[in-house]
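Example 9 (inverse folding). The structure is encoded as follows.
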């Protein structure tokens, strides 16, 4: 079940939409991203947020902040229900270097109850009231953000980020968003207006990997996610993750993990 309500508020007020979603164990997730930031409040059940680099457990009382254009999908373990609000920016509440991050933390009971009530006020105001009140919505939204800001500074569990130079961070951003294209060291260097040799040296120094090695890791991680959460064929997954042939995909996958993509998927069913 998914209900999403667009909120027609001036852009400077930041709030774009609010949604309520319930997913069960049979839900086939699809990998997606948003052009805006999204804040999830898990209100019931359990699940996982699957990202490019890791899986994040979701349970009642958790808050997850997903940055714009970060690929992810939600998978249920036990019927998982969450509210989400889409917003333009969080500069007033987060560090200035908030890029390619997912922040998540658990709320105490009082904060969870308060946040849940505020989400419901916005949802009910927009859904039920024909001429909804901007003041009620914005007051509730501002209170939500105050709770979020306080918990980020005091109770956060983990910040997923790479402490890299801006050059390497920009290269990583290109790779993680366009790994399925035929990226090369030369093409990435051209985008960043730097010589390939300087980029290669900086990238290797800070990550311990070459650009091609990092790109391949992104491709294989995405392939693993698609094998887990979709019914896509091996061939379709190969093409979706930037491999030119199914045989090359299977060969590369087995070299990395010791089993073929088909064996990997079959093992998940056992």
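The amino acid assigned to each position is listed next.
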């Amino acid at each position: 079940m998914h209900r999403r309500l667009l909120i027609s508020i001036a852009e400077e007020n930041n709030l774009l939409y609010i949604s309520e979603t319930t997913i069960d164990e049979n839900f086939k997730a699809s990998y997606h991203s948003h052009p805006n930031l999204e804040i999830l409040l898990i209100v019931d059940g359990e699940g996982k947020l699957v990202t490019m680099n890791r899986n994040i457990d979701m349970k009642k009382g958790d808050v997850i902040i997903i940055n714009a254009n970060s690929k992810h999908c939600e998978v249920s373990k036990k019927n998982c229900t969450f509210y989400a609000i889409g917003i333009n920016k969080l500069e007033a509440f987060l560090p200035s270097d908030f890029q390619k991050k997912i922040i998540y933390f658990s709320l105490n009971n009082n904060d969870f109850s308060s946040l849940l009530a505020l989400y419901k006020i916005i949802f009910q105001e927009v859904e039920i009231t024909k001429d909804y009140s901007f003041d009620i919505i914005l007051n509730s939204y501002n209170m939500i953000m105050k709770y979020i800001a306080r918990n980020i500074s005091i109770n956060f569990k983990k910040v997923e980020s790479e402490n890299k130079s801006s050059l390497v961070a920009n290269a990583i951003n290109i790779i993680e968003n366009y790994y399925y294209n035929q990226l090369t060291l030369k093409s990435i260097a051209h985008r960043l207006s730097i010589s390939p040799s300087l980029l290669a040296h900086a990238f290797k120094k800070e990550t311990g990997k070459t650009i091609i090695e990092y790109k391949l890791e992104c491709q294989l991680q995405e392939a693993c996610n698609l094998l887990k959460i979709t019914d896509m064929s091996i061939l379709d997954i190969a093409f979706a993750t930037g491999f030119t042939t199914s045989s090359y995909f299977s060969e590369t996958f087995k070299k990395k993990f010791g089993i073929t993509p088909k064996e990997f998927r079959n093992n998940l069913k056992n």
